[in-house]
TrEMBL record, chain A:
This protein's name: SCO2 protein
Residues the record lists as binding Cu cation: C66, C70, H157
PANTHER family per UniProt: ELECTRON TRANSPORT PROTIN SCO1/SENC FAMILY MEMBER, PROTEIN SCO2 HOMOLOG, MITOCHONDRIAL
Thioredoxin domain mapped to chain residues: 28-192
Keyword terms of this UniProt record: Copper, Disulfide bond, Metal-binding
InterPro entries according to UniProt: SCO1/SenC, Thioredoxin-like_sf, Thioredoxin_domain
Organism: Tachuris rubrigastra
Keyword GTP-binding in record: no
Family the entry assigns: Belongs to the SCO1/2 family.
Gene: Sco2
TrEMBL record, chain B:
Entries under Gene3D superfamilies matching the protein: Cytochrome c oxidase, subunit VIb
InterPro entries documented for this protein: COA6, COX6B-like, CX6/COA6-like_sf
Keyword Cell wall biogenesis/degradation among record annotations: no
Keywords: Disulfide bond, Mitochondrion
Protein's name according to its UniProt entry: COA6 factor
Gene name of the record: Coa6
Any one GO CC term of the record: mitochondrion
Subcellular locations according to the entry: Mitochondrion
A biological process from GO: respiratory chain complex IV assembly
Amino acid sequence: AGLAGAGWLYLRREKEQRLRQRRLRDLRALALGQGDFQLQDTSGAPRSRSDLLGRWVLLYFGFTHCPDVCPEELEKLCRAVELLEGVPGLPPVQPLFITVDPARDDAAALGRYLRDFHPRLQGLTGTAEQVRAAAGAFRVYVSAGDPDPDGDYVVDHSVLTFLLGPDGLVRDCYGRSRTAEELARSVRRHMESYEPLPP
Amino acid sequence: AAGMAAPTREERTACWGARDEFWQCLDSHGDDAAKCEKLRRAFESRCPQQWVKHFDKRRDFLKYKKKLETEGYIPPEAAGKS
């Protein structure tokens, strides 16, 4: 009976391993977030996607003039990062914000906005073309609304937080309904079962 | 970068607070906006106009959603049953 139990456990682990590998291949085929981007951080320094390699990243696309969703999602993302910081032995997570409103969100504006959330939260902006390319790579929908007489407008956009692994592959994405605790638990699971995708 | 700076964290919190007070007033007066004019004006003065529009739409959506949850979806009358 012991031997059969051990055999069953082995088969189950093998099956989980196969499922994980298949999911990774599917993720890679989806090619989400593939391709390089060229943006600038809040100090104006150029940053490309390859700068993120080697780290776990939680990435959110938003804009600083956002009425409620972006501050809420950023709070949540940063709270998840804090929770993970409290778990010994886990690699650090880089929280990252990319603006979908480069016309108003220059480096200085981003720096002012992100300061309120987490000390390690970084922000990226760029030209309209650069930002469009980056959002497009992640299939993030972006649509600026009509400006009012003061020139103010809101930007409609997909509300998603992406988890990137150290190999640069998008490992998961999280919508509005997930809590910070759920995010942290999911990231931890990904970290603990992490296998770089074979070439 | 064009126009005004984005609201700061303090300004956001003040706007959300004014919005919540206005909404609480509406809740306790059966959505009679006439009974909550002062709070409406405070809300409009604390929030960018674009945010006021956004939150107005959000309130409509939340009410609609609640209606669906309590009353259920009532489809338009069918032309005739076979």
